[in-house]
Specification:
Structural class: mainly alpha
Oligomer: single chain
Largest sheet: none
Distance between the termini: 52 Å
Number of strands: 0
Shape: flat
Radius of gyration: 22 Å
Length: 102
């Protein structure tokens, strides 16, 4: 109809597992939960601090793969922030008139 194409807003979600996760995200979350189960089996849970340490891998990986609006997840935000802070912050103009400047 009038050579216009309608692309749905959620086209990327079709390529994600369960509509939210990349394969790397699920591997990361699964490894964090596996480490937590292993720590639960082998560490003595005598006090509150030991329980926090044992549950930390699952909570940290869960936080990293948590979906965030306008980004994919927290891991993407942290990665982009790191790239922004570590890359060059001054940009040289090399447009169509870059030889005209001083």
């Amino acid at each position: 109809m009038y050579d216009r194409y309608l692309i749905p807003a959620n086209t990327k979600r079709g390529r994600l597992l369960f509509g939210w996760f990349r394969p790397f995200d699920l591997i990361l979350l699964g490894s964090g939960i596996l480490v937590t189960f292993m720590l639960l089996a082998f560490m003595p849970l005598d006090n509150t601090w030991m329980i926090i340490v044992v549950l930390a891998p699952a909570f940290i990986t869960g936080f990293l793969v948590m979906p965030v609006p306008y980004y994919h997840n927290m891991l993407t935000i942290i990665t982009e922030l790191y790239e922004f802070l570590t890359n060059r912050q001054t940009y040289r103009w090399k447009g169509w008139c870059w030889r005209d400047g001083k």
